[in-house]
Structure formats: C-alpha cells, structure tokens
Amino acid sequence: MKRFLSFLILLSLFVYAGAYAHDDDDDDHDDDEPRRFSEQLSLSSQQIQEINRSYINEVKPIFMKKCMVCHNTKPDYPWYESIPGLGFIMRHHNEEGVEHIDFTNDFPFKGRKPLGELLEEFEEEVLLEDEMPPWYYLLTHWDARLTASEKKTIQKWFDQTNATLRIR
Fold first, then answer.
1. 68 and 103 in contact (C-beta within 8 Å)?
2. What are the structural domain ranges in the chain?
C-alpha cells in the first residue's frame, strides 16, 4: 500500500510539474517551425565545422548523458515510458524540450530563438542558475545534474563559440 501511495504521489508530482516545466513568458518569439541557425549565421562553413567538431568531441558526450532524453527528437526513453500516464508525460516533456533547444543534429542547434540568445539563455539557466534539469526530473535521475567539471567543459566551449560568433 505504501509503494502504491508513493507511486501516486510521484505521478501527481510529474503531472503538476508538467504544467510548469518551462517558463513560457517569452511572447516575443516566433511560433514558426524552429529554424536551422546556420541560415542566420554569417560564419564560413569551416568555422561552423570547427565549432561542431569541438562540440562533438567535448560537449556532446556530456549532453548525451544529461540532456538528450528531453532535447532530442530521437530520445532513448527508460523502461517506465511504457507505463500509461508516465509515457504521455515524458513524451510531452520531450516535445517541449526539443522546442526550446534541439541537440539532435549537433551544432548549429535548432530552436525558437536566434543562436546568440539561445546560448545566452542556456548558459544562464544551466550553468549559472542550475535550473536544468528540472527538479522533478532529478527525483528519479539523481546523476542528471551537471558536475563542476562538466560545467567547466561546457562553459569553455560556450566561451569559444561566442568568441567565434562575434568574429564576423
């Protein structure tokens, strides 16, 4: 009985958190299909390839472990995704996560904001304010929080990428 009650409480937390998963107070974004940022960049293909190469080698392995369940169009869901209700919530969170930033096809990422804004928002929410992953995800995925070393690696890549983006 205690396990069932615990399960119901956890399920209700997921449902409640689903309603408030991402702050959508940005009314200034386009509701159009997310754009490939390469179309917005005034970078050479060599610069884009260099940023992507460093992303793949240094940052993507971290994102694969910590972010890809929610920010990937081809997520590798855990076994409990097949549980009615939980699967719906997980798929909804995945759709919402991909809408914000999609790591599926590496750099440049897809999203609903220009790349500079997207990287700035990511840096603020993930590296500085520790808002990602959300608290309710951490309830069942304790190792999803970024370590200090992982944050340092991502910050270094962000700084290098931002420096390149400013060189136009």
1. yes
2. 35-166
